[in-house]
């Protein structure tokens, strides 16, 4: 049985032309300017068919804005598909926009427990992991300080340490390998490899093609929200590189 | 349908450590770990009570000993209602970074608001109760026990209000200002700083009290606490009806927007 299955999944965003809509504007538009719409739609993903089986490691590549991160968020359940069907059997652990989701007035220690609780930990289970998380982050006494005073690198260290402290069933990762300074990156890479070996399935987005080739058995090439190609990792990466090095061409949307 | 509702609540329960931790940090930020902090945030209803007592006892000859607890209970309950509505407006923006990070039932964010406001409400009411007991002696126990289901009702109404306010404010960002004006109007048509009898005497105005859910909630609190009697069947009826309607509206709104809110944040 597949751990993740997407059947003809599409995701359509409604984008507001002028940021958030106010009630006043809405009423005015409705009454007087019926023709001009305040929103337009963006088809972020279309006709995505995907099956990730037990033990699979899937990499996702593509240009900026191809929909890679959106697809990951859809897999993690943050975005519901607007068409098609998404089936996931198992708990998804996600690692993206890693510095998000902190309480800035609380200390590092407290944030470890909050994030842990959100990931479904209990006070008892998180207590046993606290030390490991603190040790891995190497933040030491900074953990007593409110997050407000952390540098972005420190936040990334903390977030990565928390998110990877749990044993993931399905791991969804968005380019966090470039997180933190050199020493931490090497450590993070090591930790990622460990996690990928225990997780039932892994989906990772990255621009680091050589690493992807090593880590993944399959690669999905995403282009303007469509699946361009999917197949064995090295083959896809070679094809992708060939196109990149070829004459710069514009794709019709 | 039923399975979906139970599943939703069990998911909320599973994440209880998360939202309880958020409530705790909200309270701590508010009270800053000191007794002065608590006094500080109760200053508003107390100061209002003192000022209004002075004015009303001079102008309308109200007896301060009964009027002060009357005002304090009214202002405390109204403080709770405004808190769940106005802070509820912000609740999804406040939780935005979590919503973007991990799928979880949306209702936990208004729940955070409601529990924080509820704690504050109980503190204020405690002070009012002490005030009453100092003046009149300890009240009637069975009547006081009727406050327990009232608190449950208030919690449900508050949570539902916060959900609705939060969703409306995400859809239309300026609705917060409209709601603020509306709350101001409601403050004056609800017998908070004047006695309900003053309106009930006039035929037309009496409907402001009879059909006003907040007037019913006020009586559910005041009657047992101040008079030592059980609340009237009118108050119980309107209160329960308000509870049912609010829950239905909030549930419907969540059903429509639970999945879509992420696109509007």
Helix fraction of chain A, binned, reads 25-40%
- Report how far apart the termini of chain A are: 35 Å
Q: Briefly note the structural class of the backbone of chain B.
A: mainly alpha
Give me the side-by-side strand order of the main sheet of chain A: 5-6-7-3-8-9
What features would you describe in this structure?
The complex is a heterodimer of chains A (253) and B (265). In chain A, strand 6 (170-174), helix 6 and strand 7 (201-205) form a beta-alpha-beta unit. Chain A contains eight helices and nine strands. Chain A has helices at 23-31, 68-76, 108-118, 123-137, 152-163, 182-198, 209-215, 233-245, and strands at residues 2-16, 39-53, 57-61, 83-88, 92-95, 170-174, 201-205, 218-223, 226-232. In chain A, the strands form two sheets. Chain A has a six-stranded mixed beta sheet with strand order 5-6-7-3-8-9, sandwiched between helices. In chain A, 37% of the residues lie in helices and 27% in strands. Chain A is globular and about 50 Å long. Chain A is α/β, with parallel strands linked by helices. Chain B is mostly helical and 265 residues long. Chain B has helices spanning 2-14, 16-31, 35-59, 64-94, 96-101, 108-136, 141-145, 147-171, 175-189, 196-200, 206-210, 213-227, 233-257. Chain B is globular, with a radius of gyration of 19 Å. The model of chain B has no long low-confidence stretch (mean pLDDT 88). The chains are: A alpha/beta (253), B mainly alpha (265). The A-B interface holds A 13-14, 20-24, 26, 76-80, 94, 96-97, 100-103, 105-106, 110, 113-114, 117-123 and B 14-15, 17-18, 21-22, 25, 29, 97-104, 171-175, 178, 259-260, 262-264.
Short synopsis of the structure:
The complex is a heterodimer of chains A (253) and B (265). Chain A has helices at 23-31, 68-76, 108-118, 123-137, 152-163, 182-198, 209-215, 233-245; strands at residues 2-16, 39-53, 57-61, 83-88, 92-95, 170-174, 201-205, 218-223, 226-232. By secondary structure, chain A is α/β, with parallel strands linked by helices.
